[in-house]
Amino acid sequence: MGLAKDMPGGELKSKFLGCLVGMAIGDALGAKREGRGMSRSEDIVSLADKLEQLIYTDDTHMTIGVAESLIESNGFDGEHMAQTFVKNYKAEPWRGYGPGPPRIFGMIKGGEAWYSAADRLYSGGSFGNGSAMRVSPVGLLYSRNPERLREIAYRSSSITHSHELGKEGAALQACAVALALNTPWDEDIDREDFLSALQDFARNQLYREKVSRIRELLGEQDKARVVALLGNGIEAPRSVPTAIYCFLRQPQSYRDTVIYAISLGGDTDTIAAMAGAISGAYLGIEAIPSEWRAKLENREYIEALAEKLTSSIDNVNTG
To answer: What is the DSSP letter of 128?
Structure first.
């Protein structure tokens, strides 16, 4: 991985902002199509134009919790992050949480350790995409150290998703965010180098195979084939590689990345959130359509978290 610290401060801040705001907008816009089939790009654009406000889901709500905890703890503290999730869920339980996390939060609130509650609920752990959807702040903060990034992605995942495929999915998404962050915005993404870096990073054979599929599909026009080979479901192996693919299809356009992700159908909010996080980490906040930014609920708070994360990068990565 390249080093984010070599960038001018203004560019780094813009990329942090782009990542978190880009994630939240992808989530909010994708939420309107979640669980449906494939759709035309123009229909998604029309939907975005009609919406008066972009209301985010648990994807962004939990990402906010990850960012809050990393900032307040000056790095990863599993107990603090778990308690932050519990507190935020109690404040806004209506964000669209699936059945698993609230039960885990209840167990943690009742005294179960943050690192064992998920295993008690799911034998072998969950391999859903719930930890990958929220991991982008980890990718930003630990972008200089791939092994530390992997460790923190795994540990943060294990609060709710302790299966190897869940943890590896979170780590791969964090790695993609870091690679995008570390590519200066005046440099084109070298898609072959990007995929090779992901392939080298991935430890799990299934994810390594999925990265190879991304390479094969980059010129594919048939969305049905993309979904058949990469997936559009709630499982991490069937959504994290898809989000990375959506970014690499059109790395110079945040708008096109998110619209394409949503057009694939399925778990649209999470796939668009992950794709939007990667795209925003590369292109910066200015690349996100201003009319979309203006509609995002709670945008000022999300932007404030991104700025605090930017300020934390030196302290966290040298610790």
So the answer is: B
